[in-house]
Amino acid sequence: xxxxxxxxxxxxxxxxxxxxxxxxxxxxxxxxxxxxxxxxxxxxxxxxxxxxxxxxxxxxxxxxxxxxxxxxxxxxxxxxxxxxxxxxxxxxxxxxxxxxxxxxxxxxxxxxxxxxxxxxxxxxxxxxxxxxxxxxxxxxxxxxxxxxxxxxxxxxxxxxxxxxxxxxxxxxxxxxxxxxxxxxxxxxxxxxxxxxxxxxxxxxxxxxxxxxxxxxxxxxxxxxxxxxxxxxxxxxxxxxxxxxxxxxxxxxxxxxxxxxxxxxxxxxxxxxxxxxxxxxxxxxxxxxxxxxxxxxxxxxxxxxxxxxxxxxxxxxxxxxxxxxxxxxxxxxxxxxxxxxxxxxxxxx
Length: 348
Prior knowledge:
- This protein has helices spanning 2-22, 37-55, 76-88, 100-108, 149-161, 174-179, 182-192, 208-220, 241-250, 261-265, 277-292, 314-320, 326-331, and strands at 26-32, 59-60, 66-67, 94-98, 116-119, 141-143, 165-171, 195-202, 225-228, 255-257, 270-272, 310-313, 334-336.
- By secondary structure, the chain is an alpha/beta fold.
C-alpha cells in the first residue's frame, strides 16, 4: 500500500517534468556587425512570421544575446568575440547571423553543433559561405539564397541606360567587395562592354565624408552612371544621404539603387522595387521552423526565387535629362513622379 501511495504522489511530478521539457522555449541569439535599416526590416519580418505561424510562445530572443558592435574599424575584432560567446553559451539554442560580416564571424568559430541561420547576406556563394546553391556544405548552417539576383540587376540597369562608365564604391575588404556585388559588376561589364570605374578607399565605417570624396573621384573620371550599393553612408537613418543624391542629380548621373524603392522615391533614377520583407520573413521563418522540428540545417532548401521588380522616378529622370523607354515604364512595378525623402531620415 505504501508503494502505491508513493507512486501516486511521484507520478504527477514525473509527468510535469516531461511536459516542461517539451514546452521549453527555444532561445535565439542574434549577431549583426552594425545597425542597418534593411537588417531591421528582415529581422522584424522574420519574428512576425514566426508569431503568425504559431511559434510566438515557443521562442524567445534574450536581450543579452543580441549583439550589434558597430561598423567602425575598432569594433571589427568584437564580431568574432560575440560570435564565440553565442556559440559557447549553453542557454542559447539557435543563432541568427545577420549580414555578411556577422556570418563570416560565426562560421569562423562554428562548433558544428548549434544551428546557424544566416540572412541579409549580399551573395552567399561569392562570400564562400556555401558550397553551392543546393548545399551549404556545413551540417549546422543554412542561408537564404537568391541565385543571380545581382547580376540581373546590373544587366537591367545597362539595358535601360546604356552607360559607358559605371561608378561603384566599396571598402577594399572581402566583405566590402561582396556588399558592392563587385564580382557580378565586373562580369556584366565584360559581357556588355562598358567600363567599371571603382573607388575602393572607403573604410569599414563607410562614413558620409568618405563617400562624398569617393563620388568626387568617380565624377572626375567621367562616370555616366552610378550604382548605389549597401553602404552605411546611404543609410537614411544614419547619414545625410540627400547630400550624396543631390550631387549625383546635379551632375546628371543616372543611378540604380539595389536596396529598395525608398532610395528611388528619394531621388535614385531606378532600382529594385521595395524589398518584400514580409515574403522574405516567411521564407526565413519556414527555414527556421524546419530546424526547430529537428531537420538538419544543411538539409533545408536554401533557394528563394522572388521575381525581380523595378521602381523608377520620373522627377529624377526630368532633372538629369533622361527619357525612360515606354516599355520600361509599362514594365515597372512602382513609378514615382516626385522626389520624396524618407520620414525616418536622420538629417531633416
